[in-house]
């Protein structure tokens, strides 16, 4: 297993223990008032978990190149303490830290510092929604010098390498592309002159840090923009960078303005590694042995191993998987694969937050980015079947019960058990996972089932008694010191005449019994569940006629912005009809009678009508516990179904589990 992934390698003078790189992620922790404590602990835990080469989020080489107000400003003194602290923490944990040199170009936001973004040409950006200023010769020279001084500063601050960000549509990539470089001077006009800026940056950085200090370049393997650089032009650039002294090339894919998905869950695992293979082939054909790093949609060491075996790359970068599991290297290397907490590619707490100011975290690992606030869950040994905890609940002082094994309940049970609390986890269904069981059926969301697999193995190892197929009553729970009510949600009741007809299903019935769904489907409701259900039904039977209806708001509202557009594009391609601003008249044997925004009457055909118009808390257990005098806490959807998503559910479980563990260790608990 992983013979290539765990073989040593080199990047320039840097000796690495294995070939898995922790890729760059902006965390919104880079400029905080804690002196860099949270940032340092975040990186420290990943290094302790086996990460060797870690690449930081982008550090802006000047103010006009910053990606936002939380970006480190490398050449300004106030950023130094946090960056130095991060490098020292990684070194103490046995790893190496490379700093990414960043300039957003036309992707910068004028509102950040009141500075108009600079770019090779004044080409409007749909991402930052502004037209940048075309750089003059002095600004170009100054920016090159800023990259060089930033690299020199990184070396002074104790970093082990730098990575020049020249991909994903940022400044250097903008100079390379004919879409954004409209110049006809020494810096543009043909592919050769458009390459001059990245090569000048590399030469200046190399001169600033010396031959022995590793310099990585993250270069674009494909822009995924019509009319941008060709594959041949990008291969030629990669060869020129290798000839110019780059110690490794990290191959990026796509721009933020591209309409081709690159990192969303619906993109197959490892889909873009062929781009890295193409670049690597070009470099080898030119006679260079420069290591190539492949990336995008690799969420396990096993997938990285396959890529290395195929010759796609010399190293493989994973970013979000280190959010989901800081010990992914250690756990995989030990062969404890069932205990790896797998990244599900949802983007909800990571990528979607990184474009704002909220600290980045992880849906399936809510500790991510908050390692100082919440203690880690220990990595248990995998229990043998004969060592599995008894299925018989034994309540008593100091023991907690968690009722409901959806995301909130699973996280609460794990957090409590990790703190030393004896936990019984009750689940009325035959399996744990709650709505993750439904989500795992949706195309592109099979990794949600990996989260269930993780908890299936983690909880028994922590000593949690998992009692599936076991509803819990207040009387059953009377002996516990505290009860966590995580009973989730139920479909919201929809008051439309005809909702009681036999061909009307709620969304849970449609997910679990798709064979009952006809060829013409009318879905009442247009949120994330409705969109997922339409996606599932369309893929299962491409001949289905599906319509999604919503009274107000956007179809798919609530889905993260980096994912929603891609999912809706899939639905459009599948012929799914979407209607908003409708009024519901009644459900008939033939479908749903609605009024459109102009008041016109229409029948939306439906052999099956599915109600997916929201959710309501399912928390009746709490009332019984209150009557019994049993201390309890309600979390997740059972507490509040409005705006419910899995990010909030896992976070609720972490917060409640931590608070209740402290309560049981000290003062008597009180119902609330």
Features:
18% strand; FAD/NAD(P)-binding domain; disordered C terminus; Rossmann fold; single chain; 3 domains; TIM Barrel; globular; 672 residues; alpha/beta; eight-stranded parallel beta barrel
Explain this structure.
The protein is an alpha/beta fold and 672 residues long. 32% of the residues lie in helices and 18% in strands. An eight-stranded parallel barrel has the order 3-4-6-9-10-11-12-13, surrounded by seven helices. The chain is globular. The model is unreliable at 667-672 (pLDDT under 50).
Helices and strands in order:
Layout lengths: L8 E3 L2 E3 L3 E3 L14 H12 L4 E8 L11 E2 L6 H13 L3 E7 L7 H4 L4 E2 L13 E2 L2 H20 L4 E6 L4 H6 L14 H4 L1 H14 L5 E8 L8 H13 L4 E6 L19 H13 L6 E3 L6 H10 L4 E4 L1 H5 L3 H6 L17 H4 L44 E5 L3 H12 L3 E6 L7 H5 L8 H14 L3 E4 L13 E4 L3 E3 L12 E3 H6 L7 E5 L3 H13 L4 E6 L10 H13 L3 E4 L2 E6 L2 E5 L5 E5 L2 E4 L3 E3 L2 H9 L3 E3 L11 H20 L7
Parallel strand pairs: 3-4, 3-13, 4-5, 4-6, 6-9, 7-8, 9-10, 10-11, 11-12, 12-13, 14-15, 14-17, 15-16, 17-28, 19-26, 20-21, 20-26, 21-22
Antiparallel strand pairs: 1-2, 18-27, 23-24, 24-25
Helix pairs in contact: 1-2, 4-7, 8-9, 14-21, 18-19
Gyration radius from CA atoms, angstroms = 27 Å
Domain count: 3
The CATH architecture category of the largest domain equals: Alpha-Beta Barrel
Looking at this structure, what is the CATH superfamily of the largest domain?
Answer: Aldolase class I
Strand portion, in percent? Answer: 15-25%
CATH class of the largest domain: Alpha Beta
Unreliable stretches (pLDDT < 50, length at least 5) are: 667-672
Q: Which topology of the largest domain does CATH recognise?
A: TIM Barrel
**Amount of helix:** 25-40%
Overall SS class = alpha/beta
For the report, how would you describe the main beta sheet? 8 strands, parallel, barrel
- Count helical runs: 21
Shape: globular
User: What is the tally of beta strands?
Assistant: 28
Strand order of the largest sheet: 3-4-6-9-10-11-12-13
Average pLDDT score? 95
